[in-house]
Amino acid sequence: MDILDTYKTIKSSGKEVLFKDRNSKFYGYAFPIKTEEDVKNIISELKKQHHTARHHCYAWQIGTENKRYRSNDDGEPSNSAGQPIFGQIQSFEITNVLVVIVRYFGGVKLGVGGLINAYRTSAAMAIEASEIIEKTINKDFVIIFEYKDMNKVMRIIKDYDLKIIKQELELSCKIYISVRKKFVDKIKDVFSSLYEIKIKELEN
């Protein structure tokens, strides 16, 4: 059975997009994020940038296997802004992303249907203005060993092209590595079979 170990996200913040409907302006943005703290910081900056705008609506999704998400209507009628934005995040099948739509009211009410269309369209435009990339889901491990076993450990790391995150090379050594999910069992077996070398999975 193939292990699904890739996900899609955006490479960097996309350029600002603008959608207009009956004098209302909807400015759309997409940002790569890792934490809810990132969300707070970005929203705070956009509120400074667009301090006269009436609504700063958004949706975000974080995580690969255990996804977390939230949407916010920021004063618009319930489910007329945040949910349509989140729907586009799902439609593009991306994660670790925040999409924000800033609305300047143009004096004409759009109705719930008009709002849903405007926020959905702006969100799609913001995501399309970003470069979508595919990444692998990785697990992090620490390998614990004596200095004399350094060559053995480094040979395995080289043979399997493992990514080293950091190293603590003293009398007792620790090397932190990142392993693509589908190779995890194999790598654990290889290191576990070696005498005096321990491998431990880290909480991501």
From TrEMBL:
One of the GO biological process terms: regulation of translational initiation
InterPro entries recorded: Impact (IPR023582), Impact_N (IPR001498), Impact_N_sf (IPR036956), Ribosomal_Su5_D2-typ_SF (IPR020568)
Pfam families referenced in this protein's UniProt entry, alphabetically: Impact_N
GO CC, alphabetical: cytoplasm
Impact N-terminal domain: residues covered: 22-127
Stored SUPFAM superfamilies: Ribosomal protein S5 domain 2-like (SSF54211)
Listed name of the protein: YigZ family protein
Phylogenetic lineage: Bacteria, Pseudomonadati, Bacteroidota, Flavobacteriia, Flavobacteriales
